[in-house]
Amino acid sequence: xxxxxxxxxxxxxxxxxxxxxxxxxxxxxxxxxxxxxxxxxxxxxxxxxxxxxxxxxxxxxxxxxxxxxxxxxxxxxxxxxxxxxxxxxxxxxxxxxxxxxxxxxxxxxxxxxxxxxxxxxxxxxxxxxxxxxxxxxxxxxxxxxxxxxxxxxxxxx
Length: 157
Known about the structure:
The protein is of the alpha+beta class. It has helices at 32-38, 53-61, 118-124, 129-136, and strands at residues 8-14, 43-47, 65-72, 81-87, 91-100, 106-111, 114-116, 144-151.
């Protein structure tokens, strides 16, 4: 008799509300759960300073783990989580974003070293460009961001 090994999960939480630093939508609902279910949100972007996501990606690709996408039911870290979706297959790409300052601030996005449309990245992440920019570069925040895009579909940039 063959022993069935149950896969372990990797938990990824999506914000239910916009963070307090968001100058336009602080505390408002993000709609990420609905956008994920409708297929509008096809990825999420995470900082990965410790380079943990390539190993997590590999564990999912080789069938040892699955991705459990969740959201907090109330205040983050002080409430239960609700699972929104499970993925046995994901995609992973490196992302770099740079914000210029001046008369006309501009955001440039590079995925795996190739420049891509900030409008496309923001839309695929479930936001418009203004909210996306504020999320990653709130106020006078950092001028650059390095991380990963975790894809929920087969789409890649």
